[in-house]
Design brief:
Helix 4 packs parallel to helix 5. The protein has three domains: 37 residues; 120 residues, 60s Ribosomal Protein L30, Chain: A, CATH 3.30.1330.10; 161 residues, Phosphoribosyl-aminoimidazole Synthetase, Chain A, domain 2 (Alpha-Beta Complex), CATH 3.90.650.10. The chain has a six-stranded mixed β-sheet. Strands 8-10-7-11-9-12 form a six-stranded mixed β-sheet. The chain is of the alpha+beta class.
């Protein structure tokens, strides 16, 4: 079955979602505030940037943990889900070259249970410290008529000099793509993963294949790449592109501005949980790469002459980092060998 069919059977229609976004944005494009816009044009990129003045910009974005929250509810464990919320936001901000500085969270629930909120707060605190940001406020909305469980999202801001924004426009064929390992599923593809794995005992390690309980694997927090990427940006190396690999997998590279494609010839190791999902769900390799990160959480693209220096710096934070491929001259195409 196709990616659309696999997700559709799990209850998600990608084409419908894309249509909904377009219907929304169609109206947002018509906003008239009666003065020149502050928006920096970054079509399709990971975060938005507004001009504060002629030199400085503020980057911002919003995201949530999606149906990974249902896993936390099922297992009765909410102490790490806040890390995911921080990660999904700050990992997008750094893609434009911004330094994340703060985030606010938004919790939707039927009943604001203090114990659950306390556990969520533990994760938010840990994620904030890992990312080097503050969380000065947020909102809890008790809306039992809207949701029966819990939902967690956030909005984050960062600072970036306008002439230091990273768009990917300087990427050239031959530039190395350096991959940083994911910690697992991160916060994408859980609707499909939960459906495929529903009949398994999440307190067990199925067939001894994962090395620990399936539930622990599913709740593994999303990796936060802020410190590594900020050090890379401040190193003086020629950083040409940054991509957060989320839903859509490697196609996230195509959100970068350069008219290039990407040839992935030496991918990072694929964690066993993805192989389990593919096997039990009879999901093809191509479909898995369309839905999940497959062990690749973030990509850094640098000038070819600086590959070794970039690798040394990034491996100090993420030892599994390696060159996974290069930019190619077939614009808009991802090739996996």
């Amino acid at each position: 079955m196709s990616h659309e069919e696999a997700y559709g059977q799990a209850g998600v229609s990608q084409s419908r979602a894309e249509g909904a976004v377009e219907a929304l944005v169609r109206n947002l494009r018509l906003i008239d505030i009666g003065r020149p816009s502050r928006v920096v044009g970054l079509p399709g990129h990971y975060a938005s940037v507004l001009k504060l003045d002629d030199r400085n910009g503020i980057a911002f974005g919003t995201d949530g943990v999606g149906t990974k929250m249902i896993v936390a509810e099922h297992l009765g464990r909410f102490e790490t889900i806040g890390i995911d919320c921080v990660a999904m936001n700050v990992n997008d901000l750094i893609c434009v070259g911004a330094e994340p500085i703060a985030m606010v969270d938004f919790i939707l629930c039927a009943d604001a249970d203090p114990d659950v909120c306390g556990q969520i707060g533990l994760g938010l605190r840990q994620g904030a410290e890992l990312a080097g940001i503050e969380i000065p406020g947020g909102e809890i909305a008790q809306v039992g008529e809207v949701v029966s469980g819990w939902e967690l999202g956030g909005s984050a801001i960062g600072l970036v000099e306008l002439d230091a924004i990273v768009t990917g426009e300087r990427i050239e064929p031959g530039d190395p793509v350096i991959g940083l390992p994911s910690s697992g599923l991160h916060s994408n593809g859980y609707t499909l993963a939960r459906k495929v794995l529903a009949e398994l005992d999440w307190a067990e390690d199925p067939g001894g294949r994962l090395g620990r309980a399936l539930g622990e694997i599913l709740l593994e927090p999303t990796e936060i790449y802020v410190r590594a990427v900020l050090e890379l940006l401040r190193s003086g190396l020629n950083v040409r592109g940054l991509a957060h690999i989320t839903g859509g997998g490697l196609s996230n590279l195509l959100r970068l501005a350069a008219p290039v494609g990407y040839e992935i010839d030496d991918p990072l190791p694929v964690p066993a949980v993805f192989e389990l999902i593919a096997e039990l769900g009879e999901v093809s390799e191509d479909e898995m790469h369309e839905v999940f990160n497959m062990g690749l959480g973030f990509c850094c693209i640098v000038a070819a002459a600086e590959e070794d220096a970039a690798l040394e710096l990034l491996r100090a934070h993420h030892p599994g980092a390696k060159r996974i491929g290069r930019a190619g001259d077939r614009a808009g195409e991802i090739e996996r060998h």
